[in-house]
Write a structure and sequence with these properties.
Ribosomal_bL31_sf; 19% helix; alpha+beta; Ribosomal_bL31_B; Large ribosomal subunit protein bL31B; four-stranded mixed sheet
């Protein structure tokens, strides 16, 4: 890497407040707020709205869409197209 042009790459805590989930990783993201981590050290913290702990795809709480029923309802309402 070329010296002096890249932001500092350091440990940062990402916290999903809705799910009560946090993880420590390395990032160039910055924050003025800090949090004391499990190891006793203080790290910058970045609050996120969605993480793997709260996203429906990862939690299994996603809704199943009945595409066949929607197609049939569309055809009943508007008839079959392309005649």
């Amino acid at each position: 890497m070329k010296p002096g042009i890249h932001p500092p790459y350091r440990p940062v805590v990402f916290r999903d407040r809705a799910a009560g989930f946090a993880f420590l990783t390395r990032s160039t993201a910055t924050s003025d707020r800090t949090v004391e981590w499990e190891d006793g050290a203080t790290y910058p913290v970045i609050d996120v709205e969605i993480s793997s702990a709260s996203h429906p795809f990862y939690t299994g709480a996603q809704r199943v869409i009945d595409t066949a029923g929607r197609v049939e309802r569309f055809e009943r309402r508007y008839g079959r197209g392309g005649k």
